């Protein structure tokens, strides 16, 4: 079964992720095979309270969808077709009995779907099909049926227009567009984090690093908070930087200090950018297992985590990396110069696109099965969900 999953963040008017939207890509028209594949992913499913929209537009909408033992945080995103089929009454009855969270993808079958008696929590609109002006009218007409959200928004202006049109949230990668022109250099706080990172990379004396950290109390607090987070999974609480060095060693500490730089942004969309960066990093780290040497795993994580530094820090990628003494494979991948880590970064990026064939091709390039890619992505989303920004 060649099921691949891509994703979009669903972002509210405050710039916070309120859900993750998963799109299913399959060359198989058999919904039963798709459901089997989804049931095989339940053990790595994101566990947070944040909703996971699952889009079934490309999968035949029939009773087989209800064979998925869906996790509690799933919202089924359904097109109108099953509400117009011969078995529509049975389908609606089964949906009511299952008490699922539902989103109706507004289409030409709206009359049948909305008047079927189905309790939709959300009404989803595709920005590729409706203009902001049309969305404003539709939001008013459908407000009694569910919360209006919009999908496939790819520009900052499009996001603003949709929110002004009455949409509660928008899904898409408009966050990848810079909100303003890049600065020429890092600000003082960012530069300080880079100095601490460089001290760790060259294995400086613990006292020297601790002294540098103490120059910024908030930095020390943030570092310990990350290390003690659920995502890190330590069995004991780390009390100080010296304690962290003892337990983790310099190599692992370098990875977690890198998070401080990723989370140093003041951009309004920073929470979404951080979540994306951490998802990429964790996914690359997991996909590399068995394909690169064990000592490369942390570097794969850092490559993914740093892949949005230009947006997070408001400078060009070249300027962001200029003061950092990163290993060459990381720098090469981030600057688009190929190298060992580049195929893993390309695969992580493909999971954010809408092209299932391109994702499949990139996975095949690394010799990875669909299930491996899907499991790594879901586990990475779960990891990013556990981190505090």
UniProtKB/TrEMBL annotation:
Signal peptide: none
PROSITE patterns associated with the record: HDOD (PS51833)
InterPro entries in UniProt: HDOD, RNase_Y/CdgJ
HDOD domain boundaries: 186-372
Domain of life: Bacteria
Name recorded for this polypeptide: HDOD domain-containing protein
Native species: Azospira restricta
